[in-house]
Please model this.
Amino acid sequence: MSDVKGFCEPRFDAVRAALAALLGKDDVGASAAVYLDGEQVVDIWGGYADADRSVRWERDTLTGVNSTTKNMTALCALILADRGELDLSAPVAAYWPEFAVAGKENVLVRHVLSHTAGLPDLSGLTAVEELYDRERVTAGLAAQAPAWEPGTAAGYHALTFGFLVGEVVRRITGCSLGDFFAEEVAGPLGADFHIGLSADHDHRIAALIPPPSLSDEYAAGAPPGRDGTRQENTGAVIRVKDVNSIAWRRAQIPAVNGFGNARSVALVQSVLANRGSVGGVRLLSPRGCEPAWQEVFCGDDRVLGTPMSWTVGFGKFGNTFGWGGWGGSLVVSDPGSRMTVAYVMNRMIDRVRQEDNRGMEIVMAAYSCLH
Model:
């Protein structure tokens, strides 16, 4: 068992024990947090911020959470919808006129948020550096034809999700997705989460560590499907060394380049589980939260190769919703229990080579404490 620091209500000791066990086994450094009824009940961390185990993981350590960022991007869209500035059932082209070409006239905002828009790949993109040019990427998406009739099928929009939602947000507000999130979400909540990271936070970063026996050339791909295999990468290959680079930090790639820890992830997402407010700060009405857990699509996901239920912005799993990131980070919210659980780490696991249940072990430990 490893030393775990932070705050944990006694009745949630099982979460502390679960994190300690992970740190004693697969993890190098990690954090876990639980919010219940809008109140923090667990905020713990431990281990090391570096592969050499020479720098301790501290309370304010940050790391890249990859696709766990999508939860934050989706929340921004729901806030605008709740304010009446965004109609989830409207065509994307109502906000982004250039989008209405190549068979995308009837792509709705909810299609984009539920991975059913038919735009899972960035056509013609071959290098990671091209992701840093938002105007080029969004112009390419505006010109691109959908791979299927929008709304009829789902296929995980790993990178395009953030650019599509982000451009709609930008057209409405005049702000980039990262700037909108900073001003309208992170700022009011006091949440230490960043979509794109400025240089003054670099000293707090715990770089992602490749899975055991792999190097920083380890590349992202779709999670393995039911047969244990994953789709080949299409377009730009994103490697661990890319997501650890300064250029990646400085960019805004709203699907994948968020930086935070379990505390900040759970704090932000607890807004949805707690009917729109947390810590006395209200970001949405209770009704404005509901699209987060209302199913839009249920069936086989063409990219993930597995059955999926998608809501407006989130994966739905039974009575819970949320999403995780490449390598292992995870956030799960339960509107029935008004609970949000987050797990953020630096040691990645490749699920083709090794089963990775770390985030779910934290989630299940939290559930065990409710009864």
About this structure: The first helix runs from residue 13 to 23. The radius of gyration is 19 Å.
